[in-house]
């Protein structure tokens, strides 16, 4: 039977037979794992607790790339721990300065047909190369590293047929912003977007990464392009052509849905505060004075992105009221940009070049000013994500960002370059990159790895492990949250907060800090509690601390109208029971501090429906649990660590 590309790769990785019907639980063998510094300490602590001596997947890589501002001892403690744990467990280490995880992973390990899991929501970046790359929580990475297959609800596969050709001054960012405009931040839940068509064939890998990376903003499981001549060219430039395999959807294959985008119809787009789907055209958006421009990051820090931004800036200077910075996504790209003269163009224009790290994208430096308007090429503009809740963050392409830097307001590349805007179409990926893997530490042979001592500085606190749920749960509502709560709302980002993530007793004090500063103390005082959530609860970053911190504060369940995939998995893994209102109208009847009771919790969990009584208001409602059989078992065990240990002891 003719198969689409996603189904081909899924079928090749099935650990248990399945006919891949959407909605069915499937089990997949994982080829690669990726972790990064601000999420991974818990991943490796859990791996240590399980007691295996080596990762069981083909390639595991630990990136030290997010927080390179060593404000005090905490982050260096984390990095030393991570480096020593990686050496012990047969994991590659990409050292600080090598680049941002997704860019380096695609360049050095990406290969068509592979299945890669990353402890970061933008892992789908690698889908640009004809592989399936899925973002998950850290405990899922631990699980994959033990060799246990990943479980996934079979997504729908949606074909996105790209036709036409992008106009000068438009780029792949317009494609993904158009997808967000049409599908919204929750339109991709339970879906894989498979890009095809003549328009897709013309996009280079560095264009495609912007689309697959930012597909995460629609809540999609992942996004993928075929492994075609563009992928071959990219892998050849990386000196890895021999690892290339051509991979296309079969002629006449079917999909679960279809979207058409004519690239020539797109014009420069902009996502307005504070959601990436609040998209309009740069032409129509209300003109505001721009205080900050940030170019680069994993979404738009490729050679082509930065070269095009440099060409827009050539012969101009950054406006005197604008702070303009740039994060190139890897060392090899930086070197190539230097060779081709683009770094000089940026410097001449007054752009400040930052370290090769995520940094400002997750509020580690370069926060906008009070009420400041920031124009960024990154992927998220949630309130507070840039480190300042009063900031207004707009998302655009690198070309548009460069134009805004020149004028100090919202502008397009065409407004700056005039007829010269056609020069942007000529920018292509290099034929060869200056490949240098000296910042990548290779795994040690088994005997040498066994001798490694894991180094634990004072910032590495023990891993908190939740208890199994009791039969009766009676507790108050510690928080009633609105729609679209992000994991940034639950666990704020910044250099300071990120450095606390290895120390849950400390970090949990800042849980919901910006959304509701009284939450942590209230939840702690209650001892145990339930959170009530609206639609799309837990969207955004994969950070599992958004589950671990509430768990540590005694949260036993979240009852929401709907929930983001990765966050739901993190709640299950860390012993918080994710529940959904049977009747979303019940959300309105419950208030914060209401007393709730579930009388037969353990008995009801396997039935996937629990009866909840609001004792304060005197009514009863139903909540359902959208959990697989395995997840039910995990919940009853009190989380994935207890479950995994039990399974490994049973030898299953
Ligand atoms: Fe880093 Fe931002 Fe990407 S935090 S991985 S540059 S989304």
Give an account of the 3D structure:
With 652 residues, this protein is an alpha/beta fold. The chain has 25 helices and 26 strands. It has a 7-stranded mixed beta barrel. A 6-stranded mixed β-sheet has the order 6-5-2-3-4-19, with helices on both faces. Helix 2 (37-50) packs across helix 3 (74-89), helix 6 packs parallel to helix 8 and helix 11 packs parallel to helix 14 (398-407). The longest helix is centred in the N-terminal third of the chain and has 16 residues, at 74-89. The two termini are 33 Å apart. The model has no long low-confidence stretch (mean pLDDT 96). Bound molecules: FE3-S4 cluster (F3S). FE3-S4 cluster binds next to helix 4 and helix 10.
Secondary structure elements and pairings:
Blueprint: H1 5-12, E1 25-28, E2 32-36, H2 37-50, E3 59-63, H3 74-89, E4 92-94, H4 101-109, E5 115-118, E6 132-135, H5 138-145, E7 150-153, E8 156-163, H6 172-183, E9 191-196, H7 198-201, H8 205-214, E10 222-224, H9 229-237, E11 257-262, E12 269-271, E13 279-281, E14 292-296, H10 297-300, H11 303-313, E15 323-327, H12 331-339, H13 342-349, E16 352-353, E17 373-376, E18 392-395, H14 398-407, H15 413-417, E19 440-441, H16 446-450, E20 473-480, H17 487-490, H18 495-498, H19 504-507, H20 519-526, E21 529-533, H21 545-552, E22 555-560, H22 565-573, E23 577-581, E24 595-598, H23 601-604, E25 609-614, E26 619-624, H24 629-637, H25 640-650
Parallel strand pairs: 2-3, 2-5, 3-4, 5-6, 8-9, 8-11, 9-10, 14-15, 14-17, 15-16, 17-18, 20-21, 21-22, 22-23
Antiparallel strand pairs: 1-7, 4-19, 12-13, 20-24, 23-26, 24-25, 25-26
Helix pairs in contact: 2-3, 2-5, 6-8, 11-13, 11-14, 24-25
Bound molecules: FE3-S4 cluster (F3S).
FE3-S4 cluster binds next to helix 4 and helix 10.
């Amino acid at each position: 039977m003719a198969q689409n590309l996603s189904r081909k790769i899924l079928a090749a990785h099935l650990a248990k037979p399945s006919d891949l019907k959407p909605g069915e639980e499937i089990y997949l063998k994982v080829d690669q794992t990726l972790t990064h510094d601000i999420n991974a300490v818990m991943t490796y602590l859990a791996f240590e607790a399980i007691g295996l001596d080596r990762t069981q997947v083909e390639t595991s890589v630990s990136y030290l790339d997010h927080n390179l501002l060593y404000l005090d001892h905490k982050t260096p403690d984390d990095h030393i721990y991570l480096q020593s744990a990686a050496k012990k467990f047969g994991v590659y280490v990409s050292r600080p300065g090598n680049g941002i995880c997704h860019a380096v992973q695609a360049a050095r390990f990406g290969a068509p047909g592979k299945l890669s899991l990353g402890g970061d929501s933008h892992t789908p970046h690698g889908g640009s190369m004809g592989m399936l790359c899925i973002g998950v929580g850290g405990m899922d990475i631990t699980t994959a590293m033990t060799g246990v297959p990943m479980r996934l609800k079979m997504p729908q596969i949606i074909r996105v047929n790209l036709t036409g050709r992008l106009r000068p001054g438009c780029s792949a960012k317009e494609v993904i912003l158009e997808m967000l405009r049409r599908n919204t931040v929750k339109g991709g839940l339970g879906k894989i977007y498979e890009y095809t068509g003549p328009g897709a064939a013309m996009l280079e890998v560095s264009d495609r990464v912007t689309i697959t990376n930012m597909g995460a903003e629609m809540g999609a499981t992942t996004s993928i392009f075929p492994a075609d001549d563009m992928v071959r060219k990219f892998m050849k430039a990386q000196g890895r052509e021999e690892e290339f395999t051509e991979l296309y959807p079969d002629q006449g294959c079917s999909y679960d849905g279809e979207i058409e985008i004519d690239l020539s119809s797109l014009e420069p787009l902009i996502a307005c505060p504070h959601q990436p789907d609040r998209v309009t055209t740069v032409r129509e958006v209300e003109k505001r004075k721009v205080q900050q421009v940030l170019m680069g990051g994993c979404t738009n820090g490729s050679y082509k992105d930065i070269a095009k931004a440099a060409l827009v800036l050539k012969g101009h200077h950054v406006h005197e009221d604008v702070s303009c910075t740039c994060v190139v996504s890897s060392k090899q790209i930086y070197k190539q940009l230097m060779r081709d003269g683009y770094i000089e163009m940026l410097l001449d224009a007054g752009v400040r070049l930052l370290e090769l790290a995520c940094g400002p994208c997750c509020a580690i430096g370069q926060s906008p000013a009070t009420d400041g308007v920031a124009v960024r090429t990154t992927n998220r503009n949630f309130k507070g994500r840039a480190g300042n809740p009063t900031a207004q963050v707009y998302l655009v392409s690198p070309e548009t960002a460069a134009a805004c830097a020149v004028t100090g307001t919202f502008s397009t590349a065409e407004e700056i370059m005039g007829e010269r805007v056609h020069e942007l179409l000529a920018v292509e990926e290099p034929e060869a990159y200056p490949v240098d893997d000296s910042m990548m530490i290779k795994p040690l042979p088994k005997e040498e790895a066994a001798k490694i001592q894991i180094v634990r500085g004072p910032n590495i606190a023990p891993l908190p492990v939740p208890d199994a749920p009791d039969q009766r749960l009676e507790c108050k509502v510690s928080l009633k949250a609105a729609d679209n709560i992000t994991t940034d709302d639950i666990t704020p980002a910044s250099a300071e907060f990120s450095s606390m993530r290895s120390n849950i007793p400390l970090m949990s004090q800042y849980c919901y800090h910006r959304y509701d500063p009284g939450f942590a103390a209230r939840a702690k005082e209650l001892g145990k509690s339930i959170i009530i959530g609206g639609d799309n609860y837990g969207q955004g970053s994969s950070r599992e601390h958004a589950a671990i911190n509430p768990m540590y504060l005694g949260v036993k369940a979240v009852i929401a109208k709907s929930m983001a995939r990765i966050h739901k998995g993190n709640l299950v893994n860390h012993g918080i029971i994710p529940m959904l209102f049977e009747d979303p109208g019940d959300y309105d009847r419950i208030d914060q501090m209401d007393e709730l009771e579930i009388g037969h919790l353990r008995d009801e969990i396997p039935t996937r429906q629990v009866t909840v009584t609001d004792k304060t208001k005197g009514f009863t409602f139903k909540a359902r649990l959208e959990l697989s059989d395995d997840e039910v078992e995990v919940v009853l065990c009190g989380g994935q660590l207890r479950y995994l240990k039990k399974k490994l002891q049973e030898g299953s």
